[in-house]
Amino acid sequence: MSTVATPDVPPKTNRFGLPMSQYKGLDSTLCAGCGHDGITSQIVKAFFEYGVEPSRVAKFSGIGCSSKTPAYFIGNSHGFNAVHGRMPAVATGAMLANRTLLGIGVSGDGDTASIGIGQFVHLLRRNIPLIYIIENNGVYGLTKGQFSATADVGSKLKNGIVNELPPIDCCVLAIELGCSYVARSFAGDPKQLVPLIKGAIAHKGTALLDVISPCVTFNNHEGSTKSFKYAKEHEELVHEIGFVPYYEEIRADYPEGAVKEVELHDGSHIRLRKLDRDYDPTNKPQALQLIRKANDLGELLTGLLFYDGEKKDFIDELNLTDNPLATLPADQVRPGHEALEEIMKEFA
Amino acid sequence: MSQGTLAAVADVAEEQGGQQKIVNDFSIQVATVNGSGSQSANSVLMRSIFLMGVPVSGKNIFPSNIAGLPTWYTIRASRRGYLARRKEVDLCITINPESAREDIMNVLPGGAVISEESLNLSGLRQDIAFYPVPFSKLAIQTSPEPKLRKLLMNMIYVGVAAELLGIGHDEVVTAIRTQFKSKAKAVDLNVKAVDLGIEYARSRLVKKDPYQIQRMDKTAGKVIIDGNSAAALGAMFAGCTVVTWYPITPSSSLCETMIEYFSKYRIDQKTGKATFAIVQAEDELAALGMVVGAGWAGARAMTATSGPGISLMSEFAGLAYFTEIPAVVWDIERVGPSTGLPTRTAQGDVLSAFYLSHGDTKHIVLFPASVEECFDFAGAAFDLAERFQTLVLVLSDLDLGMNNWMANPFKFPEKPLDRGKVLTKADLERLGGFERYRDVDGDGIPYRTLPGTAHPLAAYFTRGSGHNEKAAYSERPEDYKNLMDRLARKHETAKLYVPKPIANINPRAKIGIIAYGTTDWAVVESRDQLREEDGIETSYLRVRALPFTPDVRDFVNRHDRVYVVEQNRDGQLGDLVKLEVGGQCERVRKVLHYTGYPIDARTITEMISGAEREQKGGI
Hints:
Chain A is of the alpha/beta class.
């Protein structure tokens, strides 16, 4: 069965013959209008459009509102809702055990930047192959509205408490620590978020997406810097993003110099169309400088902020065999009688 | 000193030509400075005795320090094959000025001391023999390099001791070759240093003590290895594929040994790629988290740690239990709480390991007592973890893990790996689906699938929150209770699979002894002492796992009194035995040792014979 696709009518099924419904999960139990549900929809769309076999996907999360969402997408893939702030370790173990999995982790700002900061930085250092999405609302939802470590100075809770501590910028941290794919986006900007997620699917190594995702119940009021209104008013795109999967032909339909093509690990391309500023996501010092400058101005800089296609991921660093460690046959993981005899002689 | 000790010494003394000889039954304590390289010399001395065919054990009593503090190494030769620590010192080699006086005061009357001549210690006691040796002066002849001299000085005392005790030159040279892995230059230098010691003793010292090593045939075919290496090898031959760890004494060497051997024996010959991942984690939380993630994805994954690490792993331990994920944790116990005595031994983590985490948890716990069991239990732990889809803790200790033990060479594990109830794509096609937490077989153990299984019905969602049989989120009271009851049932089933206790029932014995782990070695010897010195017959049950098998209750029921011997303050396993036997708990007594040093037979004998005397006296 083949479907003739036109640019305006998206195909009903993807390259594996699966409809979008196969990429959905259970109904969300989050508050109506939650930014997280918007991100879930974009994950569904990106995985469907890119065309990923659900059984290849492994979903991970820690604890919090964000961490509930893996139950809401790709229902036919294995998922693991772990413990608070410890998703990176669980994902690391699973990806070591089976390198053929496509891992996606969803975390929140508390789960990542407060309780989970230790595991988060070490995941980045190792460059574990994993899509890591932070659904960042600056607040703890499930425990009813306390600040997290990404809350901006001066941001105010509904009860009037003002945050005086500096926020942790997870993108800056990730770039510093050598993360090879760092993006920031906004739950209210699907046009940008979908190609960024597709790029993350095509990437090899950790792909960090820090997505501002307003909490409609506890942090969407006047005075919040993580509200829909604030994000809409202050979002500054560093470029317009398009994605061309490896299995589609690239057409050069743009004027010279206006677009930067970034080739990803699997042969897919990310197209960065220049807007009103020059931004080179492969230039680390420049990226850091621009993000810091935007932070000082209260701007929300979004887009693919940093990319390094050369960095080895942890699987290659460990020189792991091509087949999953988890299911190697016994004769490959149990050395023979001679080996034991040889070793015992050393101790005789 | 107790009467019992004198009797034991007399027992092995031989009259020969009017001079008393004590052959192959004494202990040597070497007192040196930490970081001075004495460990190699001590290993060579121990191995030389081993090569003479005499059963021997070595205990390293070291400080939490890299260099400068006093350290001791006790070598025990035992013709009867006792490998437990002997707390009495017969021959003392002391070249540490800081501890020398105290070391000498600890020597048994009739014993001997080899010490640095310039310290002028010979007048300290009249009841022991002194052998002053100018180690520093002799060391000048070993090498022109001062750094090497410092190391080689230790080999001089090996030579002196070898000559005085009658250890063969060939045996010492072979031991040096083994120690330095036949690196010619190092072997030559060390042999030269040993020869300096031999020559000095031969020409300048007159034998005044009774101790002698004479050739026996009790060590042929045996090996000397530490428990951590044994565990590392066991895991390698058990098909372990993911190892995570965070450095902590006394467990670090377990994973470091894994790196060494896996790098050699677990590289795919065709591709040159690794069939394992060994990761040094950022902390113990991450170490167990990675193991849980890897276990979930189907790997045989493990970590090794000690008490403080166990505390940090508590949350993930509960997750593994509740979500039913295989995981193996080796706990090389040391003295706690907190940093405690990090370089000393204990059996203090029994209760915390058994109940590790919050809520209703109880785990499978294994207690290896020997290096052979470290090797075997490394495989058994994976089989149990995968069979029962749960956390398995293996409780070793510093004494077993870091000290050298004489043992039989390990037997190749012929039993196939037990990967447990894992459904494949083909199974799912045949069954038309599955429910992750349903007790299909009535043994409490459900079926699982691995992520990546290419079947639309393979997927399920793992969560630490409440869930029903279909792995769906649930806070319903009956779902939670069903789940907890099934987990309890699974734990019951485990009693049929865990290593059974080793029972040694003496039909004439009214009293029994229960012990586990390294305490075994001292109990075996103590039982002989109790019988030979006090006429007390005992039965013995060595427990090898939790949950208890019915053998424990039967054992307590058939004896008037049962002494549970262990190395912690509160008698942690003793408490579990009392819970197990309920109404019979009055029969259970505790014999406890908690000094940080490995337990010795004499301590047990004195406590049990004292308690039995009180019992007879009707006190």
